Amino acid sequence: MTGSDARVGDLDERTVLAHILDRVGPTGALLGPGDDAAVLAAPGGRIVASVDTLVHGPDFRTAWTDGFSLGWKAAAVNLADIAAMGARPTSLLVALAMPPETTLGEVGAIADGLRAACAELAPGCAVDGGDLAVSDTLTVAVTALGVLEGSGPVTRSGARDGDVLAVSGRLGPAARGLSLLFERFRDGAGRPIPPRTADLTADERGDLDAQLRPRPPIADGRRAAEAGATAMMDVSDGLLLDAARMARASSVTLDIDSAALGGDASTALTGGEDHALLATFPAGVRLPGSFAAIGRVREGAAPGVLVDGEEPRGRGGWDPYQDWDRGRG
Ligand SMILES: Nc1ncnc2c1ncn2[C@@H]1O[C@H](COP(=O)(O)OP(=O)(O)OP(=O)(O)O)[C@@H](O)[C@H]1O
Ligand SMILES: Cc1ncc(C[n+]2csc(CCOP(=O)(O)O)c2C)c(N)n1
Ligand SMILES: [Mg+2]
């Protein structure tokens, strides 16, 4: 038996891989992990594929999160990209690059988190393969695959004048959770320290949970496609920044009604990482699932986003190349 405290640097690849494969559980693939590639059944004949990487430093800090949450988040952010196309997620391929000090317990927890997020957010989706590497920088790169059944894909470019702009999922909690970490859980030198959740209010704990273990409304992606959504994307970087991408792709103006964004509209507008689904629907369509209207689509001389009819200032969200400050952690 290899104990959870064993360090991957003291083990061999086969042992580490076996530890993961024991945990990621049964898959619906024609051929799951173990060969050169997985073989997947694609009932609709159309597969959706996407990749998203979590890198220690700009995307997470080990002092602020744990293996389970990291695995969960790596799955959730990828499932959201598949859902945002109107597809049903079926498979994840997980590339794990880790420092030699990483313990087998941590590796197992990452695998547990991946599996739990799939089970809760996208039942039927499983880890069907991956890769292991050694690196000074802990990195989790996940490729997600999904299938289109019937309607879809729903792209970013289909929004039309007169459509309703709607959101399913939350906007703001994950960003508030990140602010808490930066503001309250660093030492005198600015280095991240583990969050003491006992010091937090229930709302703050909820925000922290949203940052570390986001719960995007994955099933609403298919529902939106079936209801006739004209455009869709997940909000990863910030509503203003991501909506501007949809506006440009569709050559329209998206006019957001700030009163529809709840009490903390300013965080809802610029905070990312909740991975809510932003979609447009023809006027008169009954909004599916948890979608709620937050504005409307107008023809615009120059494509872009308005808030209550006015042009917002600032970039409106996270840009890794502009916003990551190595010194801040
Ligand atoms: N290195 C790359 N090579 C080819 N295409 C890329 C590369 N990086 C990004 N893209 C493509 O550019 C588009 C935008 O990429 P991005 O990672 O910002 O995706 P997103 O969905 O906007 O963000 P998120 O993954 O946070 O939801 C995607 O279609 C993506 O596939
Ligand atoms: C330690 C730490 N520093 C900063 C952030 C903020 N952050 C990282 S990725 C991202 C948006 C989605 O990224 P992508 O578009 O690459 O998927 C945001 C807002 C964080 N989560 N943790
Ligand atoms: Mg996306």
From TrEMBL:
One function term, GO molecular function aspect: magnesium ion binding
Residues reported in the UniProt entry to bind substrate: 59, 273, 318
Pathway: Cofactor biosynthesis; thiamine diphosphate biosynthesis; thiamine diphosphate from thiamine phosphate: step 1/1
Sequence positions that bind Mg(2+) 2: 52, 81
Location of the PurM-like C-terminal domain: 161-261
Residues that coordinate or bind Mg(2+) 3: 36, 81, 234
Keyword Translocase: no
Residues the record lists as binding Mg(2+) 4: 36, 50, 81
Catalyzed reactions per annotation: thiamine phosphate + ATP = thiamine diphosphate + ADP
Domain PurM-like N-terminal: 34-147
Binding site for Mg(2+) 1: 52, 131
GO biological process: thiamine biosynthetic process; thiamine diphosphate biosynthetic process
Pfam families to which the protein is assigned, alphabetical: AIRS (PF00586), AIRS_C (PF02769)
Binding site for ATP: 130-131, 156, 236
Binding, Mg(2+) 5: 237
Other notes: Reaction mechanism of ThiL seems to utilize a direct, inline transfer of the gamma-phosphate of ATP to TMP rather than a phosphorylated enzyme intermediate.
Function: Catalyzes the ATP-dependent phosphorylation of thiamine-monophosphate (TMP) to form thiamine-pyrophosphate (TPP), the active form of vitamin B1.
Family: Belongs to the thiamine-monophosphate kinase family.
Name of the protein this chain belongs to: Thiamine-monophosphate kinase
Lineage, highest ranks first: Bacteria, Bacillati, Actinomycetota, Actinomycetes, Micrococcales
